[in-house]
Amino acid sequence: MPPTAPPKSCTATITRLDQALLFKILDALEGTKTIVWDRFLMTEFNSTVSYQLLKEHNVVSHVCPVINPIVKKTDHILYIIPPYLHSTKELIESHLKKIPEIDRRKHRIYYVPEVSYVHREELISAIPWIDKHIYNLPMRWFPTDHSQFISMNLPTLPPVMLIYEDWNELYKCAKALRQLETQMEYPPKIIYKGKWSTTVAQILEQLRKTPSEEHVIEAPNVDEIIIIDRWLDLATPLMMQQTFSGVADEMYGIDIQSKIKFETENFYKGSKIPKSLQEKPQFDFYLNDEIYPELCDSHMMDVSGKIQYFVRECKEEELKYKSVESVAQISECVNSLPRVIKKREATTSYLQMTTLFMHDMSQAERLDYRKCEEEILENKFEDKIIPYIETCILNAEPLLKILRLISLQSQICNGLKLATLQAYRKSIVQGYGIEVLSWFLRLEMAGLIRCSDKSEKMSTYLPVNFTDLKKRFKLFSTEPPQVGDIARFYNGYVPLLIRILEEGEQADFMNWDFIEPSKNVPLKKKLQKDRLLFIVGGITRAEMGIIKERFPDMKYCCTTATITGNQLIEGLRE
Amino acid sequence: MIDSMLDGFKQILSKRQEIPPDQHEAFDIRIEPIQRQTQAIINAIMTLIDKPHPPTSPTATKKNSNIFDDCFIPEDERDEYGGIASSASKKNHGGGQYEQMLVEQTQTSAQKHVGDLQFKLERAKEDAEVTKKLAQDIEDLNQVMEDLAALVHSQHDIVDSIEEHVELAAYKVESGNRELKKALANKNAQVPLAAAAVGATAVGGPVGFVAGSAALGIMAGVGGAIAGIFGGRLLKKQAQEATKISTNEESNQS
């Protein structure tokens, strides 16, 4: 279900682009269509096109996953799959081998975003006639729950880059940026900072020399593309987010369709479960109402105040209904009723959600975790062993949270002492088994767990000196942050990534590396430049909120994925 | 009719001259109720003849409790007998003037009634306008009700998720297959029994007849039934295999 985005917003542009790309393919084929979906792609596409919209374009049947049989007879069958070998093999075994001679012209395979040589060869070697039926479907960007942000939904980039050093992921990023700038009138200047960003910028420069991507829609122009690495600031995603959307993502997870899955009983604890949900053990809550944008970037402590405001608004509207006198007024009220009902329902749900989050946050184990995190941020234990972490290991508590705290500690203190690192590693192996050692080592390789000793240096990405940067950028505010202060998003801490961007903006990004566009760009003297921000490696929802607040001139905010600390660590597990 | 009534009444009044003056008072007392009733009747007849009441006036139905109310003079103008409260009847008992006064009175009340009716007409016009507005309002309300109904209908969220449709289709296919299997199982269950019956009659009968012994015939019949059961089972199995292959082929067909 596509989220409702305000017109001219970044997500609205991307929804338009994705829909244009897909409908162009669908409308080119006359007759009814069946789509055979890869499960992930189906969910991803559902964030821009709905079932009803596809139906309008003559898609009468959907099959998912690829291994399921096709039930309905239609004029065309479209297979939409990702460029993974197992997907290709599944497709061959489940469908392509069974296609009769006379039926071949009906079948088309679309790789999202594009087919590679390996997959094409694999397909042709198994089914020779399929060669002419393989196409690309270059849908690279998808909307997020924040109207200013779009994502590539590519959370695998950091592990792939850091463990396997596969630059193909950066090529995907450059291609995606190229697709965006092709929709604009002229190519913008590329400004970049960081190892990955440099590579992306260079590939993008090369791509500008080759035949361009398809121009599908008229998108708003930008003057500069700012590319920055996530790995320049590794500490921020490891801290617990404090904004409403951040907390929701940390605790329950917001998926690529901007929805949260809740346990019905847990959600409606102590209150009446609505009739429609009484038989469902779980339900999806879509964050696409008019209230969410107002709440998403609020600090958890400010959420109840905002909800109170919405409750008051609803009550005022109800009172207005009671005082209607003429039929015309009644008619007007009835017309506005759906919006009011939805608003009231949404307010009730958010109130319920806030209660649930606050309840979860006040659990003893979470409070202990939060206390330990605060002590790490104060650098109380420096690079020594933290007793709380040791106790957690002894109690066999979830390893994910232990690894997150160890990673955070090693980032804040610029790397753990060798003895501390070895002690942690030893206790974890003893407590959780030898199989978790590979996970620990991967985290070391990724630079999330750092050691100050050079003998233990495993990361290929040069780490930042957090202690120096902390003083230089004044990352921690001495006074408690007030409402509206960007330090409030992380309880008194301003993310390093934001400070780096702020410093760059103050100097108009003159001290960053850049690539001027080769084409002559019409010079326009502007007081303020329109910019596109691209964060390679992912961004947290709390940071998204700060960027929205602090950099309103960023017309497009793009990222490879929306992440949390847990997702970052979990992504390096295998 | 009115004239004849007035003539009759005048004749009664002329008799007043003929009786002695001391009995005039007693005559008047007796005549007065007759006089009032006559006037009331005349009033009613005048109303019916001169200005018939608008048949469908909403005002009339609203104001009057029954359709004959207009036949009578307003309550405040009536005297205790229901006739016109005549000043002449109270003050002047003179015979010559009495007739004239009665005619005048009747004419004035008729004029007054015409005025009343004009007023009623205006009221009726106003009421018609109000009714028209009311009809419009009812139409609007009807629209509102329709909107509300649509609203209630739209409360049930339209399933717009592709996933839900996929799941639904998969579930339907699965349950359809289950039903088909059930149907096939029921159909095939009777095959061994039928085969046994056929086996028993086909083998037992002729064997018994040829051998000329009932015992041998029965034994051959039992043997035929057992062979029939096994044969039937084999047939059932074959049928099941055949249907299994055909359903698989159908489902895999693309």
TrEMBL record, chain A:
<dbReference type="Pfam" id="PF00995">
    <property type="entry name" value="Sec1"/>
</dbReference>
<dbReference type="InterPro" id="IPR001619">
    <property type="entry name" value="Sec1-like"/>
</dbReference>
<dbReference type="InterPro" id="IPR036045">
    <property type="entry name" value="Sec1-like_sf"/>
</dbReference>
<dbReference type="InterPro" id="IPR043154">
    <property type="entry name" value="Sec-1-like_dom1"/>
</dbReference>
<dbReference type="InterPro" id="IPR043155">
    <property type="entry name" value="VPS33_dom3b"/>
</dbReference>
<comment type="similarity">
    <text>Belongs to the STXBP/unc-18/SEC1 family.</text>
</comment>
<protein>
    <submittedName>
        <fullName>Sec1 family protein</fullName>
    </submittedName>
</protein>
<dbReference type="InterPro" id="IPR043127">
    <property type="entry name" value="Sec-1-like_dom3a"/>
</dbReference>
<dbReference type="GO" id="GO:0016192">
    <property type="term" value="P:vesicle-mediated transport"/>
</dbReference>
<dbReference type="InterPro" id="IPR027482">
    <property type="entry name" value="Sec1-like_dom2"/>
</dbReference>
UniProtKB/TrEMBL annotation, chain B:
<dbReference type="GO" id="GO:0006886">
    <property type="term" value="P:intracellular protein transport"/>
</dbReference>
<dbReference type="GO" id="GO:0012505">
    <property type="term" value="C:endomembrane system"/>
</dbReference>
<feature type="domain" description="T-SNARE coiled-coil homology">
    <location>
        <begin position="121"/>
        <end position="183"/>
    </location>
</feature>
<keyword id="KW-0812">Transmembrane</keyword>
<keyword id="KW-1133">Transmembrane helix</keyword>
<keyword id="KW-0175">Coiled coil</keyword>
<dbReference type="GO" id="GO:0048278">
    <property type="term" value="P:vesicle docking"/>
</dbReference>
<dbReference type="InterPro" id="IPR000727">
    <property type="entry name" value="T_SNARE_dom"/>
</dbReference>
<dbReference type="GO" id="GO:0031201">
    <property type="term" value="C:SNARE complex"/>
</dbReference>
<dbReference type="GO" id="GO:0006906">
    <property type="term" value="P:vesicle fusion"/>
</dbReference>
<feature type="transmembrane region" description="Helical">
    <location>
        <begin position="215"/>
        <end position="235"/>
    </location>
</feature>
<keyword id="KW-0472">Membrane</keyword>
<dbReference type="InterPro" id="IPR045242">
    <property type="entry name" value="Syntaxin"/>
</dbReference>
<feature type="coiled-coil region">
    <location>
        <begin position="121"/>
        <end position="151"/>
    </location>
</feature>
<dbReference type="GO" id="GO:0000149">
    <property type="term" value="F:SNARE binding"/>
</dbReference>
<dbReference type="GO" id="GO:0005484">
    <property type="term" value="F:SNAP receptor activity"/>
</dbReference>
<dbReference type="InterPro" id="IPR059001">
    <property type="entry name" value="STX17_N"/>
</dbReference>
<protein>
    <submittedName>
        <fullName>t-SNARE coiled-coil homology domain-containing protein</fullName>
    </submittedName>
</protein>
<dbReference type="Pfam" id="PF26585">
    <property type="entry name" value="STX17_N"/>
</dbReference>
